[in-house]
Amino acid sequence: MRTRSWRVLVAAVAGFALVGAGTTTAQAATHSSFENGDTRVVVAPEVYKLVAGAGIKPSAIKPATAGPAGSTLAARFPISSINVSKLQISHTGGIKLAAGKAKISLRNFKIDVNKLRVYGKVSGSKANAKSALLFTLESSDRTKYGPLKLVLTKTSAGALNATFGVDAFAKGATFGYAKVRPKG
C-alpha cells in the first residue's frame, strides 16, 4: 500500500509537470534548461561527510548545478522530458566524483515511477554502462531533505567502491533524498 501511494504521488507530479508546462512529451524532450523544472537531490549528510573525508570532490555536469546545503551538498538536475504513458521522468546533466585519477560520472537520470527506480549512465575510471540501475526509491525518513529516499543498489555501491578503492558503500544504504519539482 505504501509503495502504491508513492507511485501515485510521483505519477501525479509527472502529470502536473507535463500539463503545467503546456508541452507534449516530444516537445519536452527538446529542452535542456530548467524550464520543465528539476529534481533536487540532497546527499545524506553522513554520506557527504564520508565522501569529503576521503578527499572525493563532487562537481556538477552541466546543465545540472550543485552547491553547499548546510553540512552537505545539494544538486539540481533539469527535467528534460516526462513520458506519462510510461511513467518516466528524464533528466539532463549529472554529477562527477573525483579523487586524484579516480573518477566516476553519473548522468542522464531517468526515474521509473512505476518501478520506483532511478537509472542513469555511468562512466569513469572503473565503471562504464550505457544505462544502469543506480537507486531504488523509498519514502523519506528525513522529509526536510526531500520526500523520496535514494537507496544504493548493488551496481551503484559496487561502482563507487571499485572506483575509489573502498568498501564504504553498500547495497540498501541511503545515498540521499530527492524532490521532483516541476514548473507549471
Show the helix and strand layout.
Layout: H1 2-21, H2 25-28, E1 37-43, H3 45-53, E2 57-61, E3 65-69, E4 72-83, E5 88-91, E6 94-99, E7 102-112, E8 117-124, E9 128-139, E10 148-152, H4 154-164, E11 174-182
Antiparallel strand pairs: 1-4, 1-11, 2-6, 3-4, 4-5, 5-7, 6-7, 7-8, 8-9, 9-10, 10-11
Keywords: Signal
Signal peptide: 1-28
Number of domains: 1
Strand content is over 45%
Order of secondary-structure elements: HHEHEEEEEEEEEHE
> Sheet with the most strands?
8 strands, antiparallel, barrel
Molecular shape: globular
Strands of the largest sheet, in order across it? 1-4-5-7-8-9-10-11
Q: Give the count of helical stretches.
A: 4
The secondary structure category is alpha+beta
Helical coverage, percent range: 10-25%
Low-confidence runs of at least 5 consecutive residues:
4-32
| Distance linking N and C termini | 29 Å
The count of strands amounts to: 11
